[in-house]
Amino acid sequence: MKIFKNILIQLTCVLGITLMLPSLAAESAPATPTAATSLPAVESANIMDVDTRSDAQAQRERAITQPANNAPFWRAVNSDTAHYVSIPNKEAGVLIQKSGEQWRLFRNGVITVFGGWLIILVVSAITIFYFFKGPIKLEHPRTGKKIERFTAVERLAHWTMAYSFLALAITGLFILFGKHLVLPIIGSYLYGLILFLFKNVHNLVGPLFTVSVIVFFVMFVKDNIPGPSDWAWIKSMGGARGHAAAGRFNFGEKMWFWIGMTTLGLIVSASGWVLDMIVPGLDYWRGTMQIANVIHGIAAILIMVFAMGHIYIGTIGTDGAIDGMKTGYVDESWARQHHSTWLEDIESGKIPESREPEKSATADLAKKILRSAS
Q1: Cα separations (Å) of 296 from 34, 36, 112, 305?
Q2: Among the residues of the chain, which ranges form H helices?
Q3: In terms of Cα–Cα distance, which of 241, 264, 250, 240 is closest to 342?
Q4: Where are the alpha helices (DSSP H) in 182-223?
Q5: Helix (H, G, I), strand (E, B) or coil at 148
Q6: Contact predicate 100/286, CB 8 Å
Q7: Nearest alpha-carbon partner for 238 in 337, 159, 118
Q8: Which domains does the chain have, with CATH numbers?
Q9: 150 near 328, Cβ under 8 Å?
């Protein structure tokens, strides 16, 4: 029995040594490439090693010296670099858009602050001018003779553009300044409801304003081309230094037509269409929308400032000016004082006394709309 036990112990030792020999040989042998490295279709890598352009290496080195400091990792996240994503929205490859913060600071800083002060300055200047200078009065009494200034279709185009502009200005000012001026007063709930309503009104009225600007441009471009006769108006500083002869539209009105209504109107319209996402074939990246928002905000502030001067001069700033857009006619004394060249062309027959068509379905419809709105 004792002999059998010794034999069993010896067999166990031999078997153990036999099993250990391959492991000992592998440890002593030089390292050879594994099978995995010979297969190019198989890749095993740390996710920090995938993009050699990122700060992954810097993060690994930082982890050795400062284990709790992951600044290189977040620097890579905040790098604006687009990485691979499998979803249709390729912009999702940018986890954090670094330029978004720059846009936010510019919008809430430059546009909001400087734009707000510019509006306050212009409103203050107009108010001071009105109370110290007063409106421009007629130099001679009204004769009672009416001169046709605008047709019904022209007035409808003007009021469509005017009312859509006012709707956009009011809602746009609320969107831009409401968070700073209105929210602390009425609270977040009511402010949110009004903001939601105004935002949708702004988006829906915008295309109507664009169409009205184009229609208005086609109607009035012929009479707003600057010419040699405008020098007399410029030299007299718009009547401040004596009588200023002018055609149907004076130089100041032409500048509003070209700079304010046409240039700024089309810029604010085009950028608004981008923000509404209704431009076909355009990729609406975050950067594109931010640039459009900046252009839209600057152009909107400038066109509102121009419009304030136009509205003031066309209403309370000039006696009798609003009659042309309200009724289509102005008094002969008003026409002779402000647009003498235009009146002379009418009296000489160069321009017809009436351009209103006698039988026109379009003119009749325009008159009905104007009557119902008045």
Answers
A1: 61, 57, 12, 14
A2: 2-28, 56-65, 71-77, 98-106, 115-133, 152-181, 183-186, 188-220, 230-235, 251-255, 265-275, 286-314, 323-326, 332-338, 340-347, 361-373
A3: 250
A4: 183-186, 188-220
A5: strand
A6: yes
A7: 337
A8: 106-373 (1.20.950.20)
A9: yes
Over its length of 374 residues, how does the chain's per-residue pLDDT go in tens digits? 555 555 555 555 555 555 454 454 445 445 444 444 454 454 454 444 444 445 667 767 777 777 777 777 777 777 777 777 777 776 777 777 778 888 999 999 899 999 999 999 999 999 999 999 999 999 999 999 999 999 999 999 999 999 999 999 999 999 999 999 999 999 999 999 999 999 999 999 999 999 999 999 999 999 999 988 888 888 888 877 778 889 999 999 999 999 999 999 999 999 999 999 999 988 888 889 999 999 999 999 999 999 999 999 999 999 999 999 999 999 999 999 999 999 999 999 999 988 888 778 888 888 889 888 87
DSSP character at residue 192? H
Which of helix, strand or coil describes residue 176?
A: helix
H helical segments located in 260-331 = 265-275, 286-314, 323-326
d(CA 242, CA 236): 6
Backbone angles phi, psi at 330, to 5 degrees: -125, 160
Residue 38: both structure tokens together:
């010979």
- Cβ partners under 8 Å of residue 287, min gap 6: 97, 99
Alpha-carbon distance of 244 to 347, in angstroms, equals: 19
Confirm if 180 and 113 have CB atoms less than 8 A apart. no
Positive/negative CA dihedral, 157, 163, 167, 173: positive
Structure tokens at 299: 């152009």
